[in-house]
Amino acid sequence: MKVVVFSSKDFEIPYLEEANKGRHQLTFIKESLSSKTAIKAVGYDAISIFSADDACFNTIEKLRDFGVKFIALRSAGYDNVSLRTATRLGLKVANVPEYSPNAIAEHAVALLLAVNRKLIVSNQRVKYFNFNLNNLVGFDLKNKTVGIIGTGRIGAVMTKIMHGFGCNILGYDLDQNQELVTKYNLRYTTLKELCAEADIISLHVPLNTATHQLINEDLIYEMKDGVILINTARGAVINTEAVIEGLKNRKIGALGMDVYENEKGVFFSDHSLNIPDDDLLIALNARPNVLITGHHAFLTEEALTSIAEATIYNLDCWMSKKDTENELTKVGKTI
Which of the residues 295, 296, 301, 325 is marked catalytic? Predict the structure, then answer.
């Protein structure tokens, strides 16, 4: 099968080539998919895209006209794909539903530890041989209350890790995981109660109509003064303007984020010589109690291996005219 891999990154190409083992003809391009770049798929049976690619209505219509029949996502999230359009036009779409929940959860913990213990500020001082300890006070995680919003695969790992620190754990999810209740003493609450009681809040929900800007001005008002907020889910799960206001009035004591509401066109590229004209990102980046990483929570050897293997597996199934359990466009599947 001829496959063009959009948004291909140098770090992932060896993993995809190893998983492929020559079975498919892979063409790697650095451009992201959009209605303008879709023409690069002419002559290909399938495309593979990442979370920053845009498979909207217009793009998918063009892909269909160009002869593309399959879209293999290299991500779990698929909010960047118009599944209804793909289904209506007969294109099959599959994702990588689980690659390494440990990678994401462990990155969330790294963000938490770094902002709590002021590691970045401390290291910046030491670079200039300033060993002053003023304003570097953090707190023990033991006996603190951690609110985990979204207790799916990643949230479950986060629960286990925070239980190991000796934390009290609150959870919020429409589908409750009773194993977490039994083994790790997680207590499910309402979203409002979780925000009111938690010293630390970590987000692990997909982006959809129900979670879009879930963390808004009203919920922030309910939070404890000085709460630490961690987001490794999707940027638009939080209202960035409301969070910045929360940081200004110290309702939010610190923010660790691997994702950003307006990251499209910014993340995954070097803008050091051309700073993005984005007042919200600049405001966040200027605050010493905010730590931003560029959507790289997934970036572990184990995760990259799993993503590559699942992507090639989906392509293998389609080439063999078999169904893949990872398909998102099956008739009757919720979209």
Answer: 295
By the 8 A CB rule, do 282 and 256 touch? no
Total number of residues shown for the chain: 335
- Tell me: do 92 and 107 sit in the same domain: no
Say how far apart CA 35 and CA 113 lie, in whole Å: 41
Q: Which residues contact 325 (CB under 8 A, 6 or more apart)?
A: none
Buried b vs exposed e over 244-273: b needs ≥16 C-beta within 10 Å?
bebbeeebbbbbbbbbbbebeeebbeeeee
Do 180 and 241 share a structural domain?
yes
Task: Examine the domain organization and report whether 174 and 156 are in the same domain.
Answer: yes
Q: Which of 31, 263, 287, 327 is catalytic?
A: 263
Concerning whether 295 is annotated as a catalytic residue, the answer is yes
Same domain, 19 and 120: no
Based on its alpha-carbon atoms, the radius of gyration of the chain, rounded to whole angstroms, reads 21
pLDDT tens for 248-287 read 999 999 999 999 999 988 998 999 999 999 999 999 999 9
Half-sphere exposure of 107 (CA within 13 A, CB side): 26
CA distance 181 to 286: 39
Instruction: Classify 92 as helix, strand or coil.
Output: strand
Asked if 19 contacts 309 with a C-beta cutoff of 8 angstroms, the reply is yes
**Residue 263 a catalytic site member:** yes
CA distances from 250 to 54, 68, 142, 221 (A): 36, 51, 23, 11
- The answer to whether 271 is a known catalytic residue is no
pTM over 0.70: yes
106, 153, 234, 261: which one is catalytic?
A: 234
37: containing domain: 2-99+301-319
pLDDT digits (tens, 9 = 90+) for 181-226: 999 999 999 999 999 999 999 999 999 999 999 999 999 999 999 9
Amino acid at residue number 121: V
